[in-house]
Design brief:
Keywords: Signal. The protein is an alpha/beta fold. α5 crosses α6 and α6 runs parallel beside α7. It has a domain of 277 residues: TIM Barrel, CATH 3.20.20.
Length: 439
C-alpha cells in the first residue's frame, strides 16, 4: 500500500508538471503555492526545497518572458553548486558567465618614463577553468566569462587612462587578442567586462575592445553600477556618487551588447536597515536609466508618488550634471537622438541574502548558512513580508535575516520582463534550487 501511494504521488507530480507547462501563467506544483505567498512556514520551505516546478497563486505577479529575453547566471569557483545548478536548470538560461579571469595591468619594469614602455597586461584565471562543465553545457547557452580588469596601483590606472591615450588602445587590443586565443580554445561567445572605475574614462578601451570582438563575432557585456543614492539625502548622494547616467548609457550603447546592472547590495552600500534590492529603489534606478517613468508605463510595485520623487531627484542633479551632459552631447552628437536602451539592460537579481545584528553588523548569507540556520532555529524565527521593499525577512531576538523568497523573486523577474531585456543572477550557486522555478 505504501508503494502504491508513492506511485500515485509520482503520477500526480507528473500531471501537475505537464499542466504547468501547458499554461502560460504556471511556473511551479501546487505543493509550493504557500511558498509564493506572503506567509509560509519554515518547515514548508525546508520540505519543498527540491520539489519539481509548480503553479503560483492568483495574487502573485505574473509575466511570461518575451522573445529575446536574456537570463544570465554568474558562476563562481567559491560557490561550486553553481556548476550543478546551471546544468540542472539549463532550459531556464540563455547565458552563463563563469567568474574565472582577471586581467591585471601593471606598470612596466622601470616605470613608464617617457611613455615608450607599454603597460604589462597579464591574464590570470586559467587554473580556475572547469572544462568538464563547459563540455556539458547545452549548445543554446552562450558562455561569456567575466573579465575583471585590475590595475596594480592608482598611478598605473592614471597613466593608462590619461598619459598617453595609446596606452588604453594598446591594452584593449592585447586584451582582445588574449580573449580571441582563449575563446578559440574554449569556445566562448563573448565576455563580460568589469572595470575598476567609471566606464566613461575607459570609453576608448571599450570602443577598441568592442571592435575587435565584433570581428570575431563575439559579444561584449558591461557591468554597470546602480545608483544607491536614489531616494536618500543629497549629502549621501554626493558621497556615494551617481553610478552611471542615462547619457553615459547612450554614449556607450553602440559598443555594448548588454549592460549587467548590479542592482543589489543596497543595504551594504547605504548602511541603512533596508532590503538587499528594495523594489521601490529598483524602480527609481530603472526610471532614471531608461527615462521611462514607472507610472507612465503602468508598472507594478511602486505607487504614484514615484514621479514626484524622481522629479525632485532629477532637479537636484541638474546643477551637478548639466554642464557635463552638454559637453558629452556636443562631443557625441547625440542630443535629441536618444535611443531606447532598456532592452540592453539586465536587472541584477541576488540569489543570496544577508543578516543584520542588533548592533548593525551586516554579513552575507547563502543557502548553506540559511538552511542550517532555519533547521536549528525554526521555533525562534518570525517571518515578515516587507511590502514596500517586496522582500521577506526572518526576525530573531538578536538579528534579522533578509533572504530571497519565491514571492520576492517573482516581483523582480516580473519587473525585469516588463521593463528591461532580462536578468543577471548573482550567483548561480548561492540560492535554493527552487529559485529557478520562477525564471
Amino acid at each position: 500500500m505504501g508503494a502504491l501511494a508513492h506511485v500515485v504521488a509520482a503520477i500526480g507530480i507528473i500531471i501537475s508538471s505537464i499542466s504547468a507547462l501547458s499554461h502560460p501563467a504556471c511556473y511551479v506544483d501546487p505543493a509550493l503555492h504557500r511558498l509564493a505567498a506572503k506567509e509560509f512556514t519554515v518547515h514548508g520551505l525546508l520540505l519543498h526545497n527540491n520539489l519539481p516546478r509548480v503553479c503560483f497563486p492568483q495574487d502573485a505577479p505574473k509575466s511570461v518572458p518575451a522573445a529575446g529575453d536574456v537570463t544570465l547566471a554568474y558562476v563562481t569557483p567559491w560557490n561550486r553548486d553553481g556548476y550543478t545548478e546551471t546544468l540542472l536548470h539549463a532550459n531556464k538560461l540563455t547565458h552563463v558567465s563563469p567568474v574565472w579571469y582577471t586581467l591585471k595591468i601593471t606598470a612596466p619594469k622601470g616605470g613608464f618614463k617617457d611613455g615608450s614602455r607599454p603597460a604589462e597586461v597579464v591574464l590570470e584565471g586559467e587554473a580556475e577553468i572547469n572544462a568538464t562543465w563547459l563540455q556539458q553545457l547545452p549548445r543554446h547557452i552562450q558562455v561569456v566569462p567575466r573579465f575583471q580588469v585590475q590595475f596594480d596601483t592608482s598611478a598605473t590606472l592614471r597613466q593608462v587612462l590619461f598619459f598617453p591615450r595609446n596606452e588604453l588602445i594598446d591594452a584593449a587590443k592585447r586584451m582582445a587578442l588574449l580573449m580571441k586565443e582563449t575563446g578559440q580554445r574554449r569556445g566562448y561567445d563573448g565576455l563580460v567586462l568589469e572595470l575598476p572605475a567609471s566606464a566613461m574614462p575607459f570609453k576608448m578601451f571599450i570602443q577598441t575592445l568592442s571592435h575587435e570582438l565584433k570581428r570575431q563575432n563575439q559579444s561584449l557585456i558591461l557591468v554597470i553600477p546602480a545608483e544607491h543614492g536614489l531616494g536618500t539625502s543629497r549629502a549621501f548622494k554626493r558621497q556615494e556618487g551617481h553610478g552611471i547616467s542615462r547619457r553615459e548609457l547612450q554614449i556607450l550603447s553602440p559598443y555594448i551588447d548588454l549592460f549587467s546592472l548590479v542592482s543589489y547590495d543596497h543595504a551594504q552600500s547605504t548602511g541603512r536597515e533596508v532590503g538587499n534590492s528594495p523594489v521601490r529603489w529598483l524602480q527609481l534606478v530603472l526610471d532614471k536609466l531608461t527615462g521611462i517613468r514607472t507610472q507612465q508605463s503602468g508598472r507594478p510595485g511602486i505607487d504614484g508618488s514615484a514621479d514626484a520623487e524622481l522629479d525632485a531627484l532629477e532637479d537636484e542633479d541638474e546643477d551637478d550634471e548639466d554642464e557635463q551632459d552638454d559637453e558629452d552631447d556636443t562631443a557625441e552628437g547625440i542630443r535629441g537622438t536618444e535611443v531606447d536602451v532598456s532592452r540592453k539592460i539586465l536587472l541584477g537579481i541576488p540569489f543570496y541574502g544577508f543578516t543584520m545584528t542588533s548592533d548593525g553588523v551586516l554579513n552575507t548569507i547563502t543557502k548553506t548558512e540559511l538552511l542550517s540556520l532555519l533547521q536549528f532555529s525554526m521555533n525562534g524565527l518570525r517571518l515578515n513580508w516587507l511590502d514596500e521593499d517586496k522582500e521577506h525577512v526572518f526576525d530573531m531576538p538578536i538579528w534579522r535575516i533578509w533572504f530571497t523568497s519565491l514571492l520576492g523573486l517573482l516581483w523582480r523577474v516580473h519587473i525585469a520582463r516588463e521593463r528591461v531585456g532580462g536578468v543577471a543572477i548573482w550567483d548561480a550557486g548561492q540560492g535554493l534550487s527552487i529559485y529557478y522555478d520562477v525564471l
